[in-house]
């Protein structure tokens, strides 16, 4: 079958609260953002692995609360606002200087505003040099995201396909969910690969197309394992 070169056009992914898929693995975090502004503490840290939905939750809360992102060089302006509301994605990998980060966290702790941060690691495990910053973060409220269960994974797949305006039936969706890597990050990459394959081959998304994409991904993983395996490549002397 002749194929065409798929254009890598942007698609509009929704990060609205109504598009959050609720399951046992993220229920505590969803309940935490929904309970604002009745938070007992003014700093909330959502913890989870890459692709677990942290950014979606942070975006949904920011839209509801009218929160602004914390940016390097913009901390003093943020702190000048009474009762500021701020969001900081990937606090463990952000580009803020530690003194800037401490100023925001400390101001929120003292009642000057509200901060929602996301992190791949628990606050107690963050290795900041400033002891005061570590202690403030260790005292924050934490909502941890668990590994995605079947309900969450299926719901996220439906949403990702819908974001790209791709129709997929329940059987094909179940086929994909039973064979893919069980992470939300993998789901995003896989749906993008399926989209590219469908555009290139001009086919509907069926089990046959999904199998082709899954087999190709599995072969790429095997090739990478061989190339970067534990044994050094042979050399001629």
TrEMBL record:
Source organism superkingdom: Bacteria
One GO molecular-function entry: DNA replication origin binding
GO biological process: DNA replication initiation
Gene Ontology cellular component list: plasma membrane
Name of the protein in question: Chromosomal replication initiation ATPase DnaA
UniProt source species: Aurantimonas endophytica
Taxonomic classification: Bacteria, Pseudomonadati, Pseudomonadota, Alphaproteobacteria, Hyphomicrobiales
